[in-house]
Structure to design on (224 residues):
């Protein structure tokens, strides 16, 4: 079984809808991250969490919110989706040393 | 955060060695250099990390000169399956509040 899972894997929604992307991990890591990737570009950090009580904004947090329900779960919400949020979203985890980040398979989100 | 510059793309042939150089002129004392590999529609995968001199693992080598203003990822004897995008990241991975920045990456195409 995969160590980092994301649901859904694909989602098509309409402008103005609220969307939640979920991430779960079985690696026992404290640190979790949400990134987005636009076609042909690198990943940009949206939010990150170093433990259940710690949530931090990344470089592109506007329009997004997160919830760290447990050590193993980190959810990303789009309160009112807009077309320019169409992208590939990745969740990642790392241990306290932060040497290596482990990425999930990604969620492809399309906002019409 | 240290800005990185790497070539947009590189072509190679099976069995050859591929060297990708990343420039990071304003690297800070506590920054580490990390390389990730990404296949289409998958999350990035950690390849190697180093601080100075040379690091080698089962898949790659990382060469870092004394001034640490650049680094070179070396992939020995590439195969078709090494076709991917390679990202150079520079940051203090162990610091609280660390944020890794993925640039545009280098798209490596391995030809038969």
């Amino acid at each position: 079984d995969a160590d980092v899972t994301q649901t859904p894997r694909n989602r098509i929604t309409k402008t103005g809808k609220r969307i939640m992307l979920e991430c779960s991990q079985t690696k026992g890591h404290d640190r979790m991250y949400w990134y987005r990737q636009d076609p042909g570009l690198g990943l940009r950090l949206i939010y990150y969490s170093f433990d259940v009580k710690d949530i931090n904004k990344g470089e592109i947090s506007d329009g997004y919110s997160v919830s760290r329900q447990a050590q193993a779960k980190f959810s990303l919400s789009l309160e009112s989706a807009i077309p320019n949020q169409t992208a590939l979203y990745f969740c990642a985890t790392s241990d306290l040393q932060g040497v290596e980040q482990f990425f999930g398979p990604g969620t492809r989100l399309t906002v019409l | 955060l240290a800005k990185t510059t790497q070539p947009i793309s590189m072509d190679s042939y099976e069995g050859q060695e591929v060297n990708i150089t990343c420039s990071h002129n304003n690297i800070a004392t506590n920054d580490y250099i990390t390389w990730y590999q990404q296949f289409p529609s998958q999350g990035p995968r950690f390849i190697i990390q180093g601080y100075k001199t040379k690091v080698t693992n089962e898949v790659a080598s990382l060469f870092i000169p004394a001034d640490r203003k650049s680094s070179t990822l070396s992939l020995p004897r590439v195969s078709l399956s090494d076709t991917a995008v390679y990202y150079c990241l520079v940051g203090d991975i162990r610091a609280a509040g660390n944020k890794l920045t993925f640039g545009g990456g280098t798209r490596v195409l391995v030809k038969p």
Observations:
- The first strand of chain B starts at residue 9 and ends at 13.
- Chain B touches chain A at residues 34, 36, 41-46, 49, 87, 93-94, 96-105 (CB under 8 Å).
- Chain B has a mean pLDDT of 90.
- The radius of gyration of chain B is 14 Å.
